[in-house]
Amino acid sequence: MRGYRVAAIDAVAHGQSPATAPQMVDFMESIKAAVDHFGTPHALIGHSLGGAAVYYGMATLGIPTTRAVLMSTFDRVEYIVEVWADAMRLPRDILPLIYTYFEQTYGVWSPDYVADNAVPQIAHIPALIVHDRDDEVIPYALGERVARLWTASRLMSTERLRHFMPLRSPEVVNAVVRFVGQGQ
Question: The domain that contains 31 carries what CATH number?
């Protein structure tokens, strides 16, 4: 992107980063560390758990930016834990124990990690929310809900890109470039 310097984070338990399980708190702290190091970014862009970490980090850690782009994101942290528990075929009654584990291990676990609490604090910041109607990981309705709560956002709905392909779609990439460029 012309005129911009890009700083990418190899999120915890993704890519080459060590760890075995991604935690949103780690994502948020990584974003904050990058911002502290490089300075206030013109835009923050996050996908899936990274998208939620962007907006929760903006709201709870005060991570500054003038624009945000969220792709394939969700409206509540519990959703990710529920999906993981379902994939592991764990009974739902074990979820409170998992939440207690997170709280004891990371010093934070909160049912307050929902868009209803975070988004109103940052809803004045322009945002582009991209979500595919055929997303097989994060249902479209969850991203749509974040967009409804975020008054200064625009929802870009796509089809047949599923969860990961929006990152490679020329249409989405061009929309993100245009959106980020509007704030100059």
Answer: 3.40.50.1820
In a domain, 118, yes or no: yes
CA angle 135, 141, 145 (to 5 degrees): 130
The DSSP H or E segment spanning 104 is helix 95-106
Is residue 131 within 8 A of residue 72, CB to CB? The reply is yes
Q: How many domains does the chain have?
A: 1
Q: Which tokens hold the place of 60? A: 């709870």
Summarize pLDDT for 93-137 with one digit per residue, the tens: 998 888 888 778 766 666 667 898 899 999 999 999 999 999 999
Q: How far apart are CA 111 and CA 3, in angstroms?
A: 40
Cβ atoms of 9 and 37 within 8 Å: the answer is no
Cα separation, 120 vs 29, whole angstroms: 21
Q: Between these two residues, 5 and 172, which has the higher pLDDT value?
A: 172
The answer to whether 99 and 109 have CB atoms below 8 angstroms apart is yes
pTM: 0.88
Question: Nearest Cα to 165, choosing from 47, 53, 8, 39?
Answer: 47
Rounded to an integer, what distance in angstroms lies between the CA atom of residue 45 and that of residue 71? 8
